[in-house]
Amino acid sequence: MSLANTNIVTLIRKLVLRNNLSENEICLMINLILEGKVSETLLSALLVAFTMKGETALEIKIILQAIKKHAIRIRPNISGLLIDTCGTGGGMKSFNISTAAAVVACSAGCKVAKHGNRSVSSICGSADFLEYIGLDLNLPPEKVSEAIENIGIGFLFAPKYHPAMSNISAVRKKLGIRTIFNIIGPLCNPCTNISSQVIGIFDPSLIYTIASALKTGRDVNEIMLVHGYDGFDELSNTCENLILWIVEDQIKRIRLHPKMLNVQIANPKELLVDSKESSIKYTLQVIYGLATKEREDIVVMNASAALVMGRIAKDLREGVEIARTVIKQGKPERKLSELIHKYGNSFKLEEAERKFLL
Q: From the centroid of its chain, how far is CA 183?
């Protein structure tokens, strides 16, 4: 057995005993993984052991910093704020709420660098949705920057910007469970000038740990962590929500009920999907203004958070009103069409429209 794998075995034994790793051990572990020196078998065992132990703020912080150092970074030439919306996955099997919210927010004036991947622990990831409707996921970084600069939204397909994580992705796919990289992934946007992020957390026990990890030493000005108490890694219209809003070195805690935003309570069953196709259908319907009220409501709530972070709306209630208005005006539909026509295959979008909207 190589020295690298011997070191990993030692760390696995420590994790199995529910012991936290030291700073040096975390650095050793993540660097061995990112350099491709850990066998697939041991990496699987390590990820499962980490999940069983539970992640600490220090572990999340150091792993995040290491992944960003190995990433391919871009810096779109824009004036004003640049945001991202993303969820950790692993919670309720809903449609692509954060992706729809990103398109709606962009159509209302936000600049969005949407970072995402294919499904690992969900039914349909943001990359799965966008690829299906025609977006070219393999655009070179300069083209993604161009899309953000000219259209207001671009998609950063995680594998292209985090090549060192390719072996991790393969193992995660085989495991099919939530791992520490579900937590880390949404935090790793490769844009160096991201100003704020809205990040959905499905597990309430994690939200405070993640907030603690991000409180200091981050390269993003503001982060809004959101959790729906019924298990959504989004702001939910089915129940009360928890928001941890990180600004500078302060964490503001907010409890948000949908009725505070003039949003009616929905049945969670109205928001769930059982297939990739139903996820794509419901996501497109919201963007095109053809969705049920329940599905539109959860998207406008999350678009509202993005609009607040992008300084388009002064508060969440105004953000909901703005999001509803742009959907009625057809702006998200036009924005999505512009993105696909310039940076993808418009025939695929038209085919999806015929299949799911007519």
A: 9
Query: Strands across the sheet with 241-247, in order?
Result: 153-157, 111-116, 82-87, 196-200, 222-228, 241-247, 250-256
Count of other CB atoms within 10 angstroms of residue 41: 10
pLDDT in tens, 199-249: 999 888 889 999 999 988 788 999 999 999 998 999 999 999 999 999 988
Please tell me whether the overall predicted TM-score, pTM, comes out greater than 0.85 for this model. Answer: yes
300-326 pLDDT tens trace: 999 999 999 999 999 999 999 999 999
Q: Identify the H or E element spanning 83.
A: strand 82-87
CA 304 to chain centre: 16
Sequence-ordered alpha helix ranges (H) in the chain:
3-16, 23-34, 40-53, 57-70, 97-107, 126-132, 141-150, 158-161, 166-175, 180-184, 204-214, 276-287, 293-309, 316-328, 331-343, 346-356
Residue 241 bridge partners (DSSP): 228, 256
Angle at 200 between CA 22 and CA 155, to 5 degrees: 100
Q: Which two tokens stand for residue 50?
A: 């980490």
Q: What amino acid is encoded at 107 in this protein?
A: S
Q: What are phi and psi of 105, to 5 degrees?
A: -60, -40
| CA–CA separation, 282 and 297 (whole Å) | 12
Domains and CATH numbers, the chain: 3-54 (no CATH), 82-346 (3.40.1030.10)
Distance CA 226, CA 203 (A): 10
Are 308 and 316 contacting, i.e. CB atoms less than 8 angstroms apart?
yes
